[in-house]
Amino acid sequence: xxxxxxxxxxxxSNPHELGDKPAxxxxxxxxxxxxxxxxxxxxxFGLDQVWRRAAVRFAExxxxxxxxxxxxxxxxxxxxxxxxxxxxxxxIDFTPEMLEVARMKAAHKRKPSAAQVEYTEGDATAxxxxxxxxxxxxxxFGIRNVGNTPQALGEFHRILRPNGRIVxxxxxxPSNPFIxxxxxxxxxxxxxxxxxxxxxxxxxxxxxxxxxxxxxxxxEALAQEVRTAGFSEVTQKTLTFGTCAIxxxxxx
Length: 252
Description:
alpha/beta; Rossmann fold; seven-stranded mixed beta sheet; 10 helices; globular
């Protein structure tokens, strides 16, 4: 994979239909890992952390829960679950550069004797985990980046215990036409330029981001995919005028 993971040609059609999408996504995140958090804070106006805390609350975790955070990136959601007082958290991502940042952040934040997130490399579509090993499986801003959504959801279902919950936090399209237009202008015109400069990115990551959102499943279609994977009690909560949404479901 060349340094430029996403070119105009590859984004002209649906990027989710490209056979080499996983390799492109991995190269993209490797390129932007060091400034990923900074860009998140700046371009979400700090709301990305608010959204993650909302996802933790929506999961309704207890002190007895074991959490697997898939596509954990630099660890923000995994650490939020740990702060909520669950029994254990494992963060899984297929980009080593992102995991390196997550481990560095955790090492600076916490005393060696304190509970820690276990960060491991892995693929959401083929998790190297035993059946029924988790009470909560989460994925934040990552479900649209996996190579095969139904396969990933099937893996999440497999590793959950009975009554376990899946929590998906993902960008969404606002239903209000005025907010939708403003959001589109921001994400397609302003953010790609400023984020690319801030990240010193040559991978095309911030051109891929808005395109990947508008060509991915909408909220209703994602909910149906979750049901098809065997989950029930599917509920959704929109955040910040519908710019992102949480999908929660239960394995029975």
